[in-house]
Description:
Elements: H1 2-20, E1 24-28, E2 34-37, E3 45-47, H2 62-66, H3 70-107, E4 112-114, E5 120-122, H4 125-143
Antiparallel strand pairs: 1-2, 1-3, 4-5
Helix pairs in contact: 1-3, 3-4
Amino acid sequence: MAHPRLLLxxxxxxxxxxxxxxxxxxYKDANGIWQFTDRPVPGAEKVTAxxxxxxxxxxxxxxxxxxxxxxxxAAAKRSAQQAxxxxxxxxxxxxxxxxxxxxxxxxxxxxxxxxxxGNPQYLDxxxxxxxxxxxxxxxQQLCAK
Length: 145
């Protein structure tokens, strides 16, 4: 009985991770403000990575820059470095889960999805191949460096 639960859990993880791979479109609205959406609209362009927000330069006075403590700058650098480490750890965890899901899909001879009543509906050979290809593609995307 643990095997069907494991497979169901793997499917849930697969669905959650596939939601992260959604397409993103951007366009300027009537006020000239960038809008982002998951659906293409007329005049929108597909983005592969979200553009970095450009900060407006603020006027600085020499007294403000001269009194900025070096400790704050060092703390900001440490914080940025820690954020990079945290992001790398999350990416590694997602890659590990996707790899485990793919390996399980390859090792499993029969794959099923539960119907509305919870009864197993076994996939045919073509559906199993499509499931395995999707798992492999997801693994490759999440594990790409």
